[in-house]
Amino acid sequence: MRRSDVDLIAALVEGRLEDEAEANALVASSPAHQAEYVTQKLAYEALAGLPAVELSEHERAALRRDVWTELQSQPLATASGSRWHTRWAGVAAGLFVVAGLVAVLGTLGGDDDATVVAERGDNGAAATTTVAAQAEDITESDDFQTEELAADDQEGADTGSEPGASGDAAAPDAELADIAAALKTQPSSFARFEAAAHRSLSPAAVNECIETAGLEEHDVAGQVEAAGLVFAVAIPDESDLTTGPISFVRLDTCELAPTE
Amino acid sequence: MTTPAQDAALLRRVVDGDHDAFSEIMRTHENRVFSVCVRILGDREFALDATQETFLTAFRKAYQFKGNAAVGTWIYRIAVNICYDMLRKHKRRRSGPLPDHIDPADHGAQETMEAAGVRPELREALDALPPEYRAAVVLSDVEDMSLPDVAETLRVPIGTVKSRVFRARRLLAKQLGNQPAL
Fold first, then answer.
1. How far is CA A239 from its chain centroid?
2. Residue B19 and residue B23: Cα distance in Å, rounded?
3. Which residues of B touch A8 (CB under 8 A)?
4. Distance (Å, rounded) from C-alpha A243 to C-alpha A239?
5. Which chain B residues are closer than 8 Å to A62 by Cβ?
6. Which of the two ends of chain A, N or C, has the fewest CB atoms closer than 10 A to its terminal CB?
7. Distance CA B85, CA B83 (A)
8. What does DSSP assign to residue B149?
9. B107 — contact with chain A (CB < 8 Å)?
């Protein structure tokens, strides 16, 4: 089913259309569209009909009491100050790496848009500097979603990976193993392997990609290029390049890449 | 009820140490945060913990808020991430097994079933969804957030939200279709 059909059926189900004629015609156009409309509507109405959930007065009082008890033990100025120091130290480190990357790209006549250098999740301490073309992020993400829906239509499974793509994964094995070895002993060598960003995804899409590859509770350390392909470099939460096992996820297929 | 601009002004006051401002923010958003957490976690007790953690995190990170999104969106984003963490760590979706048969005299069992605010078969169907799909469909279809707001909350493109909601509904319908009619 095409992306536009999906969007139209969803809009019809959700009651967002002023004129439903086109959508109704689409639903009536085939048994598949009719079945999809019924499916979407069944789930939507079941969820939309759920009763509201609210805090009881007892729960509300307990929540407020517990929050304030916890906060009274934390001076606001000290907490925010220490985090600012941590954050700006991380930003300074990231800027240093980006400056090196820009210098290299400038020498090579590289692209204007560069990659994420380092990224942590929302709940961890932030130490991120991102230089990316936002418009390209959105375009890449739409392509990613189109791939997902197309793969579902072809395979009937929720994998989002392209059929037959795994055969190419064998080629960069040795190169990835060399990259992993270099990063383990000298993390500062990352800049040498940085992807040239011609397929950069938004940070959220990269995170989703590594989770699709089965790497939950992992952080994305950056992106590298090997054998003409772009890989996310993933390490377990709360570890770093020197201590944690390094995994590579191919960003066009969201598959875990084997390394020698 | 506060407007987004008022919320942003309140949060600036929080950074300056104004606890009354934070109380106001909590009053505005605590119910919805709790509702989102209950729907995602399927457990009222865990949802209370997650709600508490959400506001503690919001207080601690108030200085990081840049104003790129509404304060409410930012807070719900924190809540969803905390729920994800709890699901990963606890890998539990209920405070205890639901009884197969409810004895009308067993008020405790009745409250357990009703505390999640959802029919058991729908609760099971939601529990079976991958967390990312569950969050998207809860925010969209249960909390009635617009797609742009859901995208902003989850920090993913609108296309990703549409895809997740679409697939979540498919999975839910399939699950509900396998349940015996009540």
1. 19
2. 6
3. none
4. 6
5. 48
6. C
7. 5
8. H
9. no
